[in-house]
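Structure first, sequence second, as always.
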C-alpha cells in the first residue's frame, strides 16, 4: 500500500475520531512484543516504501489486510507523539489530527496500538511510524 493510500484511509478514521485518548494506570510486569513485532513491521514498511518508489504511479491500490496491533512499553508520551518499544524495535505512534489526550499514563506503562505502519521520517529515531486508529493500555 502506498503512503497516499495509507494517509487517505487513516484520514477517514481520524476524522471520525478526532483526538485519540490514552488513559489508564500503571501496569506491572513485562511488556511486548505483541501480535506483531515492531522490528518486523519496520522492515515491512521499508520494503513497501521501496516498492512504492519503484512502481509507476498506480491509482486506487487499496488493501483489505487487517491492521497490525503492536504492544510495547511507553518511552515517551506527548500530545503529538507516543513512543513505545517492544524489545524488537521502537515505534512512533501518531495521529493525523487532534493529537493525543494523555490521562494517567507514565513512562514504562504497557500500551497497545493498532494502525497503519509507514516508514519513519529521518528526524525520528523510531524504527517505524504508526498512524494509529486505536490505542490504549494493556491489562
Amino acid at each position: 500500500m502506498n503512503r497516499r493510500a495509507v494517509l487517505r484511509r487513516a484520514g477517514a478514521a481520524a476524522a471520525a475520531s478526532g483526538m485519540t485518548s490514552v488513559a489508564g494506570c500503571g501496569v506491572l510486569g513485562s511488556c511486548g512484543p505483541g501480535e506483531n513485532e515492531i522490528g518486523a513491521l519496520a522492515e515491512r514498511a521499508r520494503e513497501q516504501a521501496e516498492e512504492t518508489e519503484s512502481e509507476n504511479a498506480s491509482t486506487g491500490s487499496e488493501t483489505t489486510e487487517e491492521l497490525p496491533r503492536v504492544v510495547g512499553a511507553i518511552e515517551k508520551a506527548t500530545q503529538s507523539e507516543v513512543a513505545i518499544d517492544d524489545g524488537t524495535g521502537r515505534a512512533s505512534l501518531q495521529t493525523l489530527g487532534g493529537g493525543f489526550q494523555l490521562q494517567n499514563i507514565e513512562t514504562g506503562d504497557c500500551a497497545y496500538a493498532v494502525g497503519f505502519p509507514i516508514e519513519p521520517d529521518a528526524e525520528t529515531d523510531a524504527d517505524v511510524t504508526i498512524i494509529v486508529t486505536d490505542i490504549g493500555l494493556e491489562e
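Margin note: The domain at 3-137 is CATH 2.40.50.140 (OB fold (Dihydrolipoamide Acetyltransferase, E2P)).
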